[in-house]
Design goal:
- The structure is a single chain.
- The protein is 30% helix and 25% strand.
- The chain has 3 domains: 176 residues, SH3 type barrels, CATH 2.30.30.240; 74 residues, MgtE N-terminal fold (Alpha Horseshoe); 114 residues, CBS-domain (Roll), CATH 3.10.580.10.
- It starts with 6 loop residues before the first strand and ends with a strand.
- Helix 6 crosses helix 8.
- The relative contact order is 0.10.
- Keywords: CBS domain.
- InterPro entries: CBS_dom, CBS_dom_sf, Mg_transptr_MgtE_intracell_dom, MgtE_N_sf, MgtE_transporter, PRC-brl_dom, PRC_barrel-like_sf, SH3_actinomycetes.
Length: 418
């Protein structure tokens, strides 16, 4: 696959850092904005979608781009920091063109687009010059042949048929859930459904937790009930409870009945508390160990990469049973304390009665004051008998303290001079 000095493949462009002339990073490329021509003329690249600080996506016109290669993008001038909004005549290269079904005009070969090449013309315009496609396989388990053809040789981009998501997800594979959620949120509704359907349950659950409520409800409502229940099981119980609470009662009850009984029980328990209380926003999956567990065992548990930093900051030492609601809470071992103790020391010997415990009915403001007063990132929630019900973390607290719709990140009005 030969390339000209001014040719870049889209698959290599997404995720590249964007720098100003002084070498300071502006953001990362997330997509390309394309306008399709009515004739066979190559589609024109009018700009880049760049993710800047705060996970805001902005539009960077190609007129502000001075250099593109396989390692970086250099820009100059004044960049408008207003949030990117796709116009009716615009198409996103990664989100809407990869995985599109196209046909080679002359040979009739049909295939799926897995990459696109952009070239800079003599007039400095960037256009899509090449289309990389993979033929449909005629043998099970074998991939079809690949072809790289000129833009004018294919047809199919002008239609709005169903798309797969294999190559889009490959391009976005390295993204953190929060960043992928930003990309999905900004996609057209149809494409959002297609991408969500192609994600595995665990990845989709992680992304749903980062999306605004209306997107969560829309995506979950488009899934078959059985799969929707499976995705809810993969979500944190507190996030699943918040999402289910937004659904019509009949739909919510149906999904709860399809979930595993233990998972559904955790969600139902959380839904029994008022939303803006410790019980309503706690997680039921903190790290819980018995008093005869050792410091070494505790440190091994908090190394779990699936734990959020706030949940990994402490171990809750309880009498059996160890699943919330547990036996009596003996105390909390914070990670700094654990690191100062010999590995063979039993947890019961280093914790005392916890003064950090919160009542499940405590209001949001009281929880905030409690965490701030004791410099905590998490605190146990206990019932009147001293049993651990869950833990409130600072990220749960911020999620409820921030204004409704904060995940939307409203457009700013400033400009960034680069």
């Amino acid at each position: 696959m030969s390339t000209s000095p001014n040719r870049v493949f889209v698959g290599r462009l997404t995720g590249l850092q964007v720098f100003d002339p002084a070498g300071d990073q502006v953001g990362r490329v997330r997509d390309l904005v394309i306008t399709l021509q009515k004739t066979n003329r190559p589609a024109r690249v009018v700009g880049l979608v760049v993710e800047v600080f705060g996970r805001r996506s902005i539009f960077l016109p190609m007129t502000r781009v001075t250099s593109i290669d396989g390692r970086q993008v250099i820009t100059t001038g004044v960049v408008n920091m207003r949030r990117f909004e796709q116009r009716n005549n615009e198409t996103l290269a990664v989100a809407q063109m990869l995985d599109r079904r196209v046909t080679v005009r002359e040979t009739g070969v049909q295939g799926t687009v897995y990459d696109l090449a952009i070239d800079q013309q003599r007039n400095r315009d960037w256009v899509i010059s090449k289309v990389a496609l993979q033929e449909d396989s005629k043998r099970f388990g074998r991939k079809g042949q690949t072809h790289v053809v000129d833009w004018h040789e294919v047809t199919g981009f002008e239609t709005d048929g169903e798309q797969g998501a294999t190559h889009v997800l490959a391009a976005l594979e390295e993204m953190k859930p929060a960043d992928l959620a930003t990309v999905i949120h900004e996609m057209p509704a149809k494409r959002r459904r297609e991408i969500a359907a192609a994600l595995d349950d665990e990845r989709l659950a992680d992304v749903l937790e980062e999306l605004p409520e209306e997107d969560q409800v829309e995506i979950l409502g488009d899934l078959p009930d059985e799969r929707a229940a499976d995705v809810l099981e993969e979500m944190s119980p507190d996030d699943a409870a918040d999402l289910i609470a937004e659904l019509p009662p009949e739909t919510a009850e149906n999904l709860l009945s399809l979930m595993e009984p233990e998972e559904a029980e955790d969600v139902r328990r959380l839904m029994s508390y008022e939303e803006r209380t410790a019980g309503g926003m706690m997680t039921t999956e903190p790290v819980v160990l018995p008093p005869d567990a050792t410091v070494a065992e505790a440190l091994a548990h908090v190394r779990n990469a699936d734990l959020t930093p706030s949940l990994a900051a402490a171990v809750y030492v309880c009498r059996p049973p160890l699943e919330p609601p547990t036996g009596r809470l003996i105390g909390v071992a914070h990670i700094q304390h654990l690191l100062r103790e010999p590995p063979r020391t039993m947890l019961g010997a280093i914790v005392k009665g916890s003064q950090d415990a919160i009542d499940p009915a405590a209001r949001l403001e009281d929880v905030a004051r409690h965490l701030a007063a004791y410099n905590l990132v998490a605190a146990p929630v206990v019932d009147e008998d001293g049993r651990l019900l869950g833990a409130v973390t600072v990220d749960d607290l911020l999620d409820h303290l921030l204004p409704e719709g904060w995940r939307e990140r409203p457009a700013g009005v400033g400009r960034l001079r680069v």
